[in-house]
Amino acid sequence: MSNRDDRLQTVAGGEAEKTPLAPDVVETEAAPVGRAGSVDLDAWLFREDDEPREVAFAEIAGLAADDEDFVWVNLTDYGPDDLEAVADELALPEAAVRIALAGWERPRVSISGQCYLVSVTVPYSDPAERRVVASELDLFVGRNYLVSAHKRPIPFAESLLARGTQNPALLKLDSAFLLSIIIDELLAHFGRLTEEVQDEIEALEERALTDTSEAFLQDLLRLKRYVFAIYRLAGQHRPIIAAFIRPDFPFAGGETIEPYFRDLSERLAQLLDSLEAAKEAVNGAFDLYVSEVSRQANDIMKVLTIVSTILLPSTVIFSFYGTNFDLGVITSAAGFVVMMLMIVAVTFGSVLLFHRWGWIGNRRR
After folding, report:
1. What is the pTM of this model?
2. Tens-digit pLDDT profile for residues 354-365
3. What is the DSSP letter of 33?
């Protein structure tokens, strides 16, 4: 490793979190642990006028040294020894390898000589538990090679492999184009998570009109935090993509490759707009919930008010007949009948009046 460059300049991202991610919603990936065994990787060779084919690990250094070749090395569920072995073969910067071997960090773009490191976040979602695991995908990009290293299988691996091995433009546009394909698939994965969230929000909006339980409120608040977490994880890639369309970035500039990254920037903006709309929709569901709770509370208060209003005249009549004055008419059987008729008349009249005013009998659901 002594022959490898240790200089690394971060040009975008990588700064510390101003507000820590909520640990009950977002689980960040830990550093890879050492394990025994040989290097676990897939390596593909791209050569003009030839079909892409898999190659052995021992061949990658020699192939990457030839400008006629382009090599894509993919490391999955790797240990430190695996990445170090690849780094020795391709002379990857030591500082970049240390970053990859650390735990999850915010996305970044760092440069070391003719190689640059792009770290992005792949979210692994658990919609049932309203949790997301933030996993780091590290991309070591050189002139004739790209190394993708991730500690768990990426959810869009099949689509990425198909696009990488079946795209005739890959050899001509080399590593920056493959990098744009990977980021494009990442944004598509974020988009699928957003669509799932939108479907959940629609179901919660309907539920908000009928369910005012404490359990529903907890589900709603947890979904709100879940959507916000995905929004933050996606938004952290904004400076990363912006770095590739800066005029002073030497590795992905020019008229050939720059349009791809401009499209990615627009896709990310649309994705964040969709997530922003999802956040507002969750707030709207919360407003529906509060309105329904208030309506039910008003209905209860209305019933109590009506009952109190109806009972008040009856209480006055009972009080009048319960006085200690010795009036024969009041204490006679005829007086008792008159008292009951008065109570019935007052009660019926009150109910009829409340119905005419629309207080009862016209409740909307």
Report:
1. 0.76
2. 777 666 665 444
3. P
**Strand 53-54 with 145-150, pairing:** unpaired
pLDDT in tens, 321-365: 665 556 565 666 776 777 777 778 877 777 777 777 666 665 444
How does DSSP assign 237-275, residue by residue? THHHHHHTTSTT-SSS-STTTHHHHHHHHHHHHHHHHHH
Asked if the model's pLDDT at residue 35 lies above 70, the reply is: no
| CB atoms inside a 10 Å sphere around CB 259 | 12
Q: What gap in Å lies between CA 225 and CA 352, rounded to an integer? A: 50
Three-state SS for 307? helix
Tokens of 116: 């640059």
Joined together, the tokens standing for residue 238 give: 């904004």
Is 133 within 8 Å of 31 (Cβ atoms)?
Answer: no
Give the tokens for residue 9.
């300049």
Shortest CA distance to 75 belongs to which of 62, 64, 85? Answer: 85
